[in-house]
Write a structure and sequence with these properties.
Layout lengths: L1 E2 L1 H12 L7 H11 L3 E2 L9 H7 L7 H10 L3 E6 L1 E6 L3 H21 L1 H11 L25 H11 L4 E6 L2 E5 L7 H4 L6 H16 L1 E3 L13 H13 L3 E6 L6 E4 L3 H5 L9 E3 L10 H8 L21 E5 L2 E11 L2 E9 L6 H18 L3 E12 L4
Parallel strand pairs: 1-8, 13-14
Antiparallel strand pairs: 2-4, 3-4, 5-6, 7-9, 8-9, 10-11, 11-12, 12-13
Helix pairs in contact: 5-7, 5-9, 9-10
Length: about 400
Amino acid sequence: MKVTHEKARKVLTKVHGFDSLGEGKKDTVELFNRIPCIQVDPIDAAGKNHDLTLFSRIKDYRTEYLSDLLYEENLLFEYYCKMLSILPMESYPVFRNRMEKQRNKFSSLFKKHKEEIDHIMEILEDGPISSLELKEMGTTDVETWRTKKKSNRLLRGLWLSGKISISHRKGNRKYYSLPENVIPERILKKDITGDEETKKRIAEMIVSSSRLVSASKASAQWNSIGNVTEITEILEELKDDGKLLSIEIDEWRGKLYAHVDDKKFWEDSHELDTPFVRFLAPLDPLLWNRKLFSCIFEHEYVWEIYKKKEDRKYGYYCLPILYNGEYVGLIEPYKDDDVLEIKNLHLFRDVEGDDFGIELKKELSRYMDFLGANDINIDNDLHFRMDSTS
């Protein structure tokens, strides 16, 4: 099936739910049935990536929704899928396969620090702990890019190995507990999937989250599965199993895959519920393959957070702006106490007219409500730019 960029934009906007928002905690958990993998990122310029991903799809989203679903109701859990991710609890048995492999990887570390491991497991019997309770362990003789603290390394290894689970967080600090205190018993009793089935299940979750994927040009999207050849084989198997569709897009070399649940949208004509403006999270599943996004939406998206200030073209933490399914610009927000600051606004398309301005104000108002901001400040030196290169 071959489609135009315009058709692809409409379909992706529709199936991601940007034009028709869900509402409440019930729709928040239901969203994970359609988009089962949401990437976690701790940076909080004006909302964290995982919260912004949900905010763009849930009308009245609050961070408490996610916290409750993760740590009170245990309907979701955290583990590595597309990097660190929030996942439906029902998928936990799939990732136990990965946990078993991590146990082998960390076996030498666990043997070397058996006394400390035994101490950690013993105090976990009394309740959740964080690295703060293990300060006396000091540092390791092996330094990694993450940490040299022995407590952090051991807790991370135990978590990746499935010997402990994330119980809750205070800010970005993780607290851990024994799996039986976090993971429902019926889930722990389920069989662990084999290697090949695990790869297929995770690949299907990635497709379901992005809604349209390529085996190439997005290595981070597939880092937990394999190389391009392996990914292509798995995607073809899923297509043969009737779970994926093959799609071709103008100006994109290579085959693309969409989930079969979206078949009616790719085959038939569906209009969007307009007008609307949405701000996308920088690591939204739609953006996991930025080259594919740039091809379909006809303008690049570059996350410049790790660039030096003088090397940035757009800004530190810019969010893509969707207007009626079109990628029209970038907005750089920053929350300072109870004030939402807009530091930059870049428009790539001519959106002059009342509708865009009205919808932008509506979305900014909803955004302020989500952030708990009482006021908005538009930077006096705001860089407003019409980019004719799009």
